[in-house]
Amino acid sequence: MIDKLKAIVGETHVLGQQDAARLCRDFTGEFNWIPIAVVRPANTDEVSRVVALANETKTPVVPVSGNTGLSAGAIADGAIMISLERMNQIREIRPDARLAIVEAGVVLSALRDAVEQEDLIFPLTFGAQGSAMIGGNLATNAGGSNVLRYGNTRDLCLGLEVVLPSGEVMDIMSELHKDNSGYNLKHLLIGAEGTLGIITAAVLKLFPRPRAYATAMVATKDLGSALGLLNRLQAASGGSVEAFEYMPRAYIEAHLETVEDARAPFEEPQEVNILIEIGATSEDAANETNDGRPKVSQMLEDTLADLFEEGVVLDAVVAQNEAQRREMWARREAAAEVVLTRIPIINNDIAVPVDKVEAFIEMADERIKAADSEAYSLIVSHLGDGNVHYAVKAPNHTPEIKAEIVEIVEECVLELGGSFSAEHGIGTYKLPSMARRKNAVALAAMRAVKTALDPNNIMNPGKVLPSE
Questions:
Q1: What is the DSSP string of 20-87?
Q2: How many domains does the chain have?
Q3: Which whole-number Å values give the CA distances from 319 to 215, 265, 275, 392, in the listed order?
Q4: Residue 255 domain-assigned?
Q5: Domain end call among 274, 300, 335
Q6: How many CB atoms lie within 10 A of CB 18?
Q7: pTM here?
Q8: What are the tens digits of pLDDT across the range 269-281?
Q9: d(CA 69, CA 379)
Q10: Domain span holding position 405
């Protein structure tokens, strides 16, 4: 097998365990595995030939991009890992059509930097953007901080190139915004976590780069007041709010403890801390006022001042320059660093309707105390779209306590009409949740699709779908 892999991709691009150590553990360090080898193909044809060989020999295949996932979706014991890192070309940027054609191994931040030269943005953004790759973003339907305005990765993709489990290459690299020619296979593959095929390239949507940003840290009296603020700002800005991120007091304190030279957002500690960013794409909103600031910043300040008078806003700091803006974002994007210092942690990535986030947090906090009186939550939230990263630190951490707390969180989520998986995917971490909570008919339909496309069950087996 190793010799045949070397014949396809070259001897130096079939890595043994020592050379591939960085890809044989998950982002959290909680999971480790031993693959047969890590293969680094240079193009789609090589991916196709490797997968065809695996299918012929019924050898499991696990694709990996930046390996920044949080659901243990790349565990590859006894499998061939296919790393897409060499397939890192931005094939084309077409400014007039506002699209980019890229390979799966392109690092997210590299794409963002490249399109910025054309005065455009690819709006997907999150803390791991310096290492996460487009293939993984698509495979997990990644979310991030700008979903409020631009949507998930699925909403940013026009077309795909995919190597199916048979080794055949499916070219659905559409550049069209409208195409009703049959089943939407693109959406089936996006979010499938490599269980139905390996994404090797994509056509992605680009957007105008905002001419100016207005960014602020705002304290409100509660989350209900924060949603009122969001709605006021959406109305005042014409729907231009890009990020609306919630950080409770406990997270701010943990950030100050963890990150060197970190500063508190306000002089006095606040219970509800919201990072707001508005992107002005119109010339008028970006025009400077008499004091040299863009109109969008003045609009933000005026709205905050009105809500301060109404008692909704308790404190606010509006960024006056790019350095202050970056400091505000650094506070939010340090979430993974803050949480990982508290491992073992019970990670929950959930979504509820936006007006039920506060109810979820209160309900879950109360119920986890019943399971472990010393347990506490560490939360950050994409409040604008109802996604809560609800991590739990249980000092009495045992597999039994972990399972009980996860089930408690699931119960709270489902009582409020939410989902136990918002943007991190299922992987292996959430297989018990899928078995317990996913509609049985939906699971049967998913298994039928998997069997039809991958009858030998070689493609990232044991992920997403729980065993029957």
A1: TGGGSB-TTSS-B---SEEE--SSHHHHHHHHHHHHHHT--EEEESS---SS-TT--TTSEEEE-TT-
A2: 4
A3: 6, 11, 11, 32
A4: yes
A5: 335
A6: 7
A7: 0.94
A8: 999 999 999 999 9
A9: 18
A10: 342-426
